[in-house]
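Go through this:
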Amino acid sequence: MKLLDSLEKRFGHLAVSNVIVVLIGAQLFMYAAIIAGRFDLESIVLIPKAVFGGEWWRLFSFLIAPPYLATTLFQALFLAFFWYILYFTSQSLEEAWGVFRFNVYLLTTIVFALLGAFIGQLISPASLVVGSTTFLYYSIFFAFATLNPNIQFMLFLVIPMKVKWLAWVAFGFGVLYFLALPSIGQRLAFAAPFLCYVLFFKDALARSLEAKKRRATYEAERREAADAALHICATCGASDKTHPERDFRYKTTEGDAVCICEACREQS
C-alpha cells in the first residue's frame, strides 16, 4: 500500500512494539481484579447506550476486558490457550509487517469496531449493542492465517490441523452467529471490525481468486484433453474412445497422415 508507505515514513517513529503483549497483560490484570471483586466485567465492556449516558471510559476500557470469565477448568485452559494464540499470531504479524503496519491494522480494526457499534446502536435503538475485544482476536487470527495458511496447530493438543482450515471453521461459526443476531444494528456492530481485514488483504484475496480461477480452467482443459480421442478414423469417424476394440493405423495421402480404423481397412 503506497499510503501506508508514506505514513510510515512520516509517523513510523510513533509505532509501539509488542502492543499485544501490553494488552494481554492488562487483560490478565483486569481478569484478576474482576475475580477479586474489584471490578464488574459489564462495567467496562463497550455499550454505546451507556456511553451516551456519560460512561465515556467504556470507549477505552473495553480493550482490556477479558473475553469471558472462566467458570470451569476447561474454560480456564481454553482462555489461556486463547491468549497464547493471540500472542503468537500477533508476534508473527508484527515481524512480517513491521511494527508500524501492525499498529495501523490494530488501530483501524478498533476504529471500525467503535463506528460499527455506535452506528449499529443508532440504526437499531431498541436493541442493546455490546462490544468486546473478541473481534480483535479474530482479525489478527485471520490475518495470520492469510499470510501463513499451511502452519499447523495441534487441535486439543492431539489433532494436527492447518491454520487455514481453522480460519475457515472460525469464519463459518462467525457467519452463523451473524445470522442469529436479532437486529441489523447488532449485525453491523459484529461485522464492521472485519472491514479492516478486507482493506488490508483485498489485493491478496483478488489474486487468490484469480489463481483459483486459472487452476480451475487448467484442470478443465486437462480433463478435456484426457477425454479427447487420440485416433479418429478419417473414413467412418470411429475413434479409440468410441471403439476401443479397433486397431487404428495411418497412411500417407498427398503428404498428410490419414487415420484408418481396421473395419474401414477391411472394407477397402
